[in-house]
Amino acid sequence: MRFWFGSARFARLKFFVYAYQTLRCACPTEGDEHANKSSPQSQGVTLTTDSMEVGPLTSEPTWQQLQDFYDKNSSKLVIKDLFEQDPNRFKNFSLKLDTPHDGDILLDYSKNRITAEVLKLLLALARARKLEEARDAMFAGQKINFTEDRAVLHTALRNRSNQPILVDGKDVTPDVNAVLEHMKQFTNSVLSGQWKGYTGKPITDVVNIGIGGSDLGPLMVTEALKAYGRGLRLHFVSNIDGTHLAEVLKKVDAESVLFIIASKTFTTQETITNATSAKQWFLNHAKDPAAVAKHFVALSTNAPKVTEFGIDPANMFGFWDWVGGRYSLWSAIGLSISLAVGFENFLQLLEGAHYLDNHFRTAPLEQNVSISNCRPANVTGDSCQYQPKTQSPQTEE
After folding, report:
1. How far is CA 58 from CA 42, 119, 144, 283, in A?
2. What strand order describes the sheet that includes 257-262?
3. Where are the alpha helices (DSSP H) in the chain?
4. Cα separation, 242 vs 248, whole angstroms
5. Whole-angstrom Cα distance, residue 216 to residue 159?
6. How confident is the model over 116-136, as pLDDT tens digits?
């Protein structure tokens, strides 16, 4: 896929919102500590939730039609020829999504080996696999992560409309907003210089220690948004090989470094091993265990373990088991992003995601950017554009 955006202040933010949305799937999600090594999808078995049931993918008639098309035509599909055969190919195989604030998103898949027939079959396959039902089940809080019997509601983390979102009958929106407020206060305290290290120096460096979704998402976004940096130097440690941490520690000063320990259970072997090493390095300089509270914060749900480590529970930022690891940057795991670009810019990231959530939830498959499809214009007789409804991701019935 190729992506172009209107020139705007947060074009990059929009790109990453879009990139994450296109990776969305109605399948088991992985936490940073409980990744499924062999999912039912990979084994070709029947998938079920409370609201849908589908058999093996390769048993679908539409799948067989796609396979037949590929066998007969794959060697004949040359991009140059496809454009020569259809002067309107770009218009027919692209989708423009206007955003409410600054610029737009253009999805251009005309440079892929796809035809109107293939697109029609792909949409039919999506419907046969009950993609729309799976999407709706996710937004309704059903436990579509059936391997762990959990809801998949990362959308609640960026529910900027603040409409009720229920998990097991409880509205989680107030709890989400409470964590965001905590992140805001902490971010502003660090960036303003009010938060000081054990010798009175302000924070200059942040070291995020985590693995999987507790590392990759924040690393990607902070790297992409360096232009919006607020002055802190960000470092990420995920490799249990001691060399990784050692090289980072050479670049920081114990008097002005802040360590973020990101682990839901605070028992993840790789993360806690690195965190313990970082703590020992710090104490070799500070000589006072009480100083740990000024230089270590936790992204976790295990207050006893966090306290045992020496981190003040007041500096613990929580999240929930319905946050899959691959989507955790939208939660407190995104604290490093907030520190890097400022809390207001972090909110912009959430706003963009919420906008795309509404689009994904309400747009027809043919016009849904998140599903990366667009009805060919020669079928509709018009360009393919869509404005999402201004509704919340979920409202209480």
Report:
1. 12, 18, 21, 57
2. 233-237, 205-209, 257-262, 296-299, 316-317
3. 11-22, 40-43, 61-73, 79-85, 89-92, 116-128, 131-139, 173-192, 216-224, 242-249, 269-286, 292-295, 303-309, 335-341, 343-362, 377-380
4. 10
5. 22
6. 999 999 999 999 999 999 999
Whose CA is closest to 206, among 156, 264, 262, 273?
A: 262
Helix, strand, coil % in the chain, rounded to nearest 5: 50, 10, 40
What is the DSSP track for 223-243? Answer: HHTGGG--SPEEEEE--SSHH
Share of the chain above pLDDT 70, in %: 80
CA 312 to chain centre: 28
14, 18, 21, 22 alpha-carbon torsion, rounded to 10°:
-170
For the chain, the straight-line distance linking the first and the last C-alpha, in angstroms and rounded, comes to 38
Tokens 């963009």 sit at which residue?
352
Q: Looking only at Cα atoms, what is the longest distance across the chain?
A: 74
Beta sheet of 94-98, edge-to-edge order: 2-5, 104-108, 94-98
- pLDDT grade, residue 202 (50/70/90)? very high
Question: Measuring CA to CA, which residue among 227, 251, 39 is closest to residue 147?
Answer: 39
User: Tens digits of per-residue pLDDT, 256-303?
Assistant: 999 999 998 899 999 999 999 999 999 999 999 999 999 999 999 899
Q: What is the C-alpha to C-alpha distance for residues 73 and 75, in angstroms, rounded to an integer?
A: 6
Contact at 8 Å (CB) between 43 and 52?
no
Determine how many CB atoms are found less than 10 A away from the CB of residue 339: 27
Q: What are phi and psi of 309, to 5 degrees?
A: -70, -25
> What would the pLDDT profile of 302-318 be if each residue is shown by its tens digit?
999 999 999 999 999 99
pTM for this structure?
A: 0.79
Distance of alpha carbon 278 from alpha carbon 305, whole angstroms: 17
Residue whose pair of structure tokens reads 């999912």 in the numeric block:
39
The two tokens of residue 198 are 């054990």
